[in-house]
Amino acid sequence: MRIASVSSAFPSNYYPQEQIFAELGRQWGATSSVLSRLEAFHQRAGVRARHLALPKEDYERVRGFSARNREYVRVAVELGESALSSALEQAGVAPHELDHLFFVSVTGMATPSIDAR
Question: Is pLDDT above 90 for 21?
Answer without folding.
Answer: no
